[in-house]
Amino acid sequence: MTKKVTILGAGLVGSLLSIFLAKKGYKVTTYESRPDYRKSTTVGGRSINLALSHRGLKALNAVGLDDEIKSRCIPMPGRMIHALDGQLDFHAYGKEGEYINSISRSGLNELLLDEAEKAGVEFYFNHKCINVDYKHTTAQFEFEDRKVEIEADFILGADGAYSAMRSSMMRSERFNYEQHYITAGYKELHIPPNAEGDFAIDPNALHIWPRGKYMLIALPNLDKSFTVTLFLPFEGEKSFENLQTEKDVSAFFEADFGDSVSLMPNLTQDFFTNPTSGLVTIRCYPWVKENCALLGDAAHAIVPFYGQGMNAGFEDCHVLSRLIDTHGELNQSVLQEYQELRKPDAEAVADLALYNFIEMRDKVADPKFILQKKIEKKLNELFPEKWLPLYSMVTFSDLRYSEALAIGKKQQEIMDKVMEYPGIEIAWQNLDFASIVNQL
Amino acid sequence: MTKKVTILGAGLVGSLLSIFLAKKGYKVTTYESRPDYRKSTTVGGRSINLALSHRGLKALNAVGLDDEIKSRCIPMPGRMIHALDGQLDFHAYGKEGEYINSISRSGLNELLLDEAEKAGVEFYFNHKCINVDYKHTTAQFEFEDRKVEIEADFILGADGAYSAMRSSMMRSERFNYEQHYITAGYKELHIPPNAEGDFAIDPNALHIWPRGKYMLIALPNLDKSFTVTLFLPFEGEKSFENLQTEKDVSAFFEADFGDSVSLMPNLTQDFFTNPTSGLVTIRCYPWVKENCALLGDAAHAIVPFYGQGMNAGFEDCHVLSRLIDTHGELNQSVLQEYQELRKPDAEAVADLALYNFIEMRDKVADPKFILQKKIEKKLNELFPEKWLPLYSMVTFSDLRYSEALAIGKKQQEIMDKVMEYPGIEIAWQNLDFASIVNQL
After folding, report:
1. pTM
2. What pLDDT, on a 0 to 100 scale, did the predictor assign at position A46?
3. Please, are residues A268 and A215 in contact by the beta-carbon 8 Å criterion?
4. A401, B46, B337, B340 — which has fewest CB within 10 A?
5. A385 close to B (CB below 8 A)
6. pLDDT over 80 at B40, yes or no
């Protein structure tokens, strides 16, 4: 008999998961608390665009979608660093032909919903999950003031950072859980197309204005605008708390992000209209109870600084899909293997994402850091099999996050010593690169 | 005008806090979800007896209660270690005249409730808090199928590890929270008085059967019985999971706690009647939002292995009380100071409690550990002002937990080196004790 799988969440991860399982012949029904994205105009408190990279593309490829996706992507082969005086400096992320992709969250979500329906998935929107009973594999929803109860063979929670399934699991015994907010928050702003209707700045880069404890970034959209995000501490000297008036905001942007001001005609209006949001890391375990499991942000919400949140969630689906193929069916031991395999990788990507805030807001402007990246690039050119920079392992490979992090730490220890060589700034080309690589 | 303080929780910490504030002239109203302990027979899933030590007694002293309490205490000046062959070994906790106290949770709670009523506190039992609105200092309760809403100048949450106030705070932005369960759980058992109606084993000791990854402990009660607690992993070779039948339980106790079996005539019955519970550490921050604050387990639930849960909660009340005295009144800046002062100490005692499980279940049976304790005792005798062993700093002093932990770490580093001296077992009396102390 066809097994019934209920999926919670029709966001990016829930939709892709639905496709994976429907294509394997499961009867998939997916519940979402919000209205159908395809019929509503607001996305609701989520970032407007995202960076799609190798892991996410590989998962989309597995359901035959990567070509469809690529046409909606804007390639970003590197970072464009905006100095305080407006000077620009481009740093490639990887090798020639390697890039991350700016993609619209809503556009991608709509495509996935359409594909899921084509694959036979049934969607129920405006169904707010209020409880999951993992012992009986049932769930209760609120829908238009009524209560709806469902029963399934499996319930998979891809219902995001504020997951209802996770809340239900938390009420059971012995569920480990942590939510931790960093001291900075974020606010989205907007660079519209210029007077000629074209991109106002180079679209083939992720723009960063690194300023130490805070930063501004911008990612291109297909409509030739940019979505801009300010990351700034909530409290302290330079903080959201100290930006109370239009004058405060203008003065702050003039002083710290001077070259961005003329690009954002609606800066102060956007600033006071758009919400200021917190940035949370959520860690929990177990992810699996009986025939219920958590995937994506529901299992491991991370800060956005490595551009890996969606990629990690898509990789969860892909890992689970491959385990089902290996074992021949979805069952409890597949779910068990999924969580044991995936938990260390979720921990690693959470740590990587936290670390990358420091890199983006501060280190990318540091000449010593830039030199280190240059040396690592050289190491990679000379020994492509032996030395892959951490950013490339995370973004352009599907090495397990936990392995990437472990290798990255080892690389950093080696590079710390290399960077101490007297006169390294001038003499770096004469380094004994082979002996450096051999320390790995 | 008299300020109104609402306290959530009429457990140990809530009752003591109520007394502190009522004695300062606040109009105190205290809400408790359970029935009045004084009229009900069950305590409901909490440990039966507790170890009261210096910090707790000092707080009780501050409200004039310590003499009243002392008559209800059974002094435990040390640990009685039960070896596998039944041999007994007594280790004093501190100096002559220093001891911790076994006290009945329900007896102490009843006394505190009576004292609070005498001080003018109004109690509402069977009121289950469902929400605290810290922006308006209001709270909602369920009482006999009705909803009751209250308003106060301050609301203080002393409502335990599953705090309703903390749940409300968690729904607000930027609340850091962690709950972590250790892999062991616990189950309470019972040693009744012997045939002569007397204590079956020495009442003036905390009995421990240390067995590496698990242990049994026993604390005396005034009725000449002992409350026994088995701490054991949930899963694995020796685990709750593997104790499914009466035969399993008998065989396990015969093999591992042989001398305890004849003391517990109802062992197997108790084992299958009494619940198996998890052991959680809860960390969160902030503890204060506007005029609302968390105290005791609601702010920092810890594992029971240092006997400090109640003592730390009582010390919270005492610290807050002294801050109110210093500033002349309870206000937001007092609450702010309370949380900033107290958070590092809560973190420290949480870590100390986790560490002490390893000490109790494993190290107390290790000759090297026993020798180290002997050397530290000698250091303390020779230099009482300079070297106070960690256990004594935590249990017999009111040094801040965070300082005790920091000093204890430094002491351990020094002792690690001392313990490596060749022939230390024989030659320890000839150590240069002054030079050891001077390394601190």
Report:
1. 0.91
2. 61
3. no
4. B340
5. no
6. no
